[in-house]
């Protein structure tokens, strides 16, 4: 069973700033995550990002949270790996 995906306004703004080809790759990866979430082990973050998870798409990262009871993946931030954790 797949998860639903919701986007925070910051994540939507981040996606709008990206090149269309990169944006397409990231959205495809998010859709893949929603369809395959139960077959993967999410990569959890630590420190200030405790409670969040990351997904890698080339040099870009998707930072998200999971609501297991509601089966929702909340996309919080999208950005280049050098700047995403600032």
Structural write-up:
InterPro entries: RelE/ParE_toxin, RelE/ParE_toxin_dom_sf. Belongs to the RelE toxin family. Keywords: Toxin-antitoxin system. By secondary structure, the protein is α+β, with helices and mostly antiparallel strands. It has one domain (4-80): YaeB-like fold, CATH 3.30.2310.20. Helix content is 30%, strand content 33%. The chain contains 2 helices and 5 strands. It has helices at 9-17, 20-36, and strands spanning 4-7, 43-44, 53-57, 60-67, 72-80. The protein has a 5-stranded mixed sheet with strand order 1-5-4-3-2. The radius of gyration is 12 Å and the shape is globular. The model has no long low-confidence stretch (mean pLDDT 96).
Summarize the structure.
With 86 residues, the protein is α+β, with helices and mostly antiparallel strands. It has two helices and five strands.
How do the strands of the widest beta sheet line up side by side?
A: 1-5-4-3-2
What is the CA-based Rg, rounded?
Answer: 12 Å
- What global shape is seen? globular
Number of domains: 1
CATH architecture level-2 label: 2-Layer Sandwich
**Helix-and-strand structural type:** alpha+beta
Q: What would the keywords be for this entry?
A:
86 residues, alpha+beta, YaeB-like fold, 5-stranded mixed beta sheet, 2 helices, 5 strands
């Amino acid at each position: 069973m797949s998860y639903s995906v919701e986007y925070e306004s910051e994540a939507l703004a981040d996606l709008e700033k990206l090149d269309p080809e990169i944006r397409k790759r990231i959205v495809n990866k998010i859709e893949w995550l929603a369809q395959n979430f139960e077959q993967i082990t999410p990569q959890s973050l630590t420190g200030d990002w405790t409670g969040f998870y990351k997904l890698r798409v080339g040099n870009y990262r998707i930072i998200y949270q999971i609501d297991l009871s509601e089966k929702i993946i909340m996309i919080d931030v999208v950005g280049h790996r050098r700047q995403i954790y600032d």
